[in-house]
Specification:
Number of strands: 14
Number of helices: 12
Distance between the termini: 7 Å
Order of helices and strands: EHEHHEHEHEHEHEHHEEEEHEHEEH
Shape: globular
Strand content: 15-25%
Strand order of the largest sheet: 3-2-1-4-5-6
Largest sheet: 6 strands, parallel
Bound molecules: NADP nicotinamide-adenine-dinucleotide phosphate
C-alpha cells in the first residue's frame, strides 16, 4: 500500500515538479493538492499554468484544489505533505501539520534553521535525519536546502576527507529558481542580475550546517569559512556554480580526480527510487558542465536530474576549483524532498506503510 500524501503549493514551479515526479511513485500517492485561495475550489488543470514539457499527469486532472487547511489535510488520510509554499506561508502551516501528525518534507526556508529540523541532502548528511527525535510533535518536519546550496554540498561531498577550510562560490542561477512568474522579463533578458534576496546568507549558513556533524541531537556547524556571491542569469533551468575550495594541505589533481570518480551514495541511500546512480558526475570536457546539456544526469525515471555535474577541475596553490551544475527544480527542490521522504520511509522513521 502506498502512503497518501498532500502537495502544498501544488500549482507553483516546484509544486508542478512534485505533481510530475509523484506520478506512479512506488511509495507515495498524492491525494490532496493544495494552493492559495485564488486556486482553491478549481480543478487542478483549471488553476495551474502548467510549465513542464510533459502533460499534466492524469491523476492530477481529477483532483480539485484545496485551500491550506491543516485540519482538513490531516483528516484526509494524508500521512505526509510535500511543501512547495512560499516561506512566509509555510512556517505556521508546516508546524500545525506536524502537530496533527502529518510528516512534512519542505522546500521552504521557514524551519531550516530550527535546532531539531534537519536540512537533509541524504548522500552528504543522512545521519542528520536522527535529530528529528528532538521535535515534540507526532509528525516531523524535514527540509531540503536552498537550490544552490544543494548542488554545492554534493560537489563538496567528495572533498570532505581532505579537510578543506575555505569555500568560495559564485553562482549563475536559472530563472525557474525564482518561481512563477518570477523575475520580470525586462530585467533578465540579455542581462545578469547580481542580487538574489537572502540567497548568499542562506548558502553560507546552510552549507556549514549540512556539512556539520550531528552531536547530542543537535548539529555542530562545519568550521569552514564560506563566501557566496549569487547572480540570476537568463537560463530556464539548472544552476551553474564556480567553486573554489581551500585546504591547509591541498591534495594533488590526480587525488581529487580519483575522489570525484569514486564518490558513491552511502549504503543507506543507494537504490532509493530518486537516488541518482552516482551523486556527482565528473566531466573532463573543456567546456562543461552547461545547463542546456548537463541538467538531467543521474539515471532513468525519477533519478534524472538528481546528480550534480562537476567539470573544469583544476588545482592551484592550496586551492581546488571547478564548475558545478545542478538541476534546481528537481535536485534542488521537489526531487530532493522526495528522496528525503524515501530515506525516512526506508529507515522506519516515517512509521512504515499504512
Ligand atoms: N523554484 C525553485 O527552484 C526552488 C528551489 C528550492 C526551493 N524553493 C522554495 O520552494 C517554495 C516554492 O517555490 P516556487 O518557486 O515553486 O514558488 P511559486 O512558483 O511562486 O509557487 C508558490 C505556490 O504556493 C502557493 N501559494 C502562494 N501563496 C499562498 C498562500 N497564501 N496560501 C496558500 N498557497 C499559496 C501558490 O498557489 P497559487 O497558484 O494558488 O497562487 C503556488 O502553488 C519557496 O519556498 C521557494 O523558496 C524553490
Amino acid at each position: 500500500m502506498k502512503l497518501e500524501c498532500a502537495i502544498l503549493g501544488a500549482t507553483g514551479t516546484v509544486g508542478q515538479r512534485f505533481v510530475q515526479l509523484l506520478d506512479g511513485h512506488p511509495d507515495f500517492e498524492p491525494t490532496v493538492l493544495a494552493a492559495s485561495e485564488r486556486s482553491a475550489g478549481k480543478l487542478y488543470t483549471e488553476a495551474v499554468k502548467w510549465l513542464l514539457p510533459c502533460s499534466v499527469p492524469s491523476y492530477a486532472e481529477k483532483i480539485g484544489i484545496s485551500g491550506l487547511d491543516p485540519a482538513a489535510i490531516a483528516s484526509s488520510g494524508a500521512r505526509l505533505a510535500f511543501s512547495a509554499l512560499p516561506a512566509n506561508v509555510a512556517g505556521p502551516v508546516e508546524t500545525e501539520l506536524a502537530r496533527r501528525g502529518v510528516w512534512v518534507f519542505s522546500n521552504a526556508a521557514a524551519h531550516r534553521m530550527d535546532p531539531h529540523v534537519p536540512i537533509l541532502v541524504p548522500e552528504v548528511n543522512h545521519p542528520h535525519l536522527g535529530i528529528i527525535s528532538g521535535q515534540r510533535t507526532p509528525g516531523k518536519i524535514v527540509t531540503n536546502a536552498n537550490c544552490s546550496t544543494t548542488g554545492l554540498v554534493l560537489g563538496l561531498g567528495p572533498l570532505r576527507r581532505f579537510g578543506f577550510d575555505r569555500v568560495v562560490v559564485a553562482t549563475y542561477q536559472a530563472v525557474s529558481g525564482a518561481g512563477y512568474p518570477g523575475v520580470a522579463s525586462i530585467d533578465i533578458l540579455g542581462n545578469v542580475v547580481p542580487h538574489i534576496p537572502r540567497e548568499e546568507e542562506k548558502m553560507v549558513a546552510e552549507t556549514r550546517r549540512i556539512l556539520g556533524s550531528a552531536k547530542g541531537g543537535l548539529i555542530a556547524d562545519h568550521p569552514a569559512e564560506v563566501i557566496a556571491s549569487c547572480a540570476r542569469v537568463p537560463v530556464d533551468n539548472g544552476h551553474l556554480e564556480a567553486v573554489a575550495v581551500g585546504f591547509p594541505e591541498a591534495p594533488d589533481y590526480d587525488e581529487l580526480l580519483r575522489a570525484f570518480a569514486a564518490y558513491e551514495s552511502p549504503r543507506e541511500v543507494r537504490g532509493l527510487c530518486s537516488a541518482p546512480d552516482k551523486p556527482v558526475v565528473l566531466t573532463t570536457a573543456p567546456d562543461r558542465p552547461q545547463p542546456k546539456r548537463d541538467a538531467w544526469l543521474g539515471g532513468e525515471g525519477n533519478r534524472a536530474g538528481m546528480a550534480a555535474c562537476v567539470g573544469r577541475l583544476q588545482v592551484s596553490g592550496g586551492w581546488a576549483k571547478f564548475y558545478l551544475l545542478s538541476n534546481n527544480t528537481v535536485r534542488g527542490a521537489a526531487g530532493g524532498s522526495i528522496l528525503n521522504a524515501e530515506l525516512a520511509l526506508r529507515n522506519g522513521s516515517l512509521g512504515g506503510r499504512a
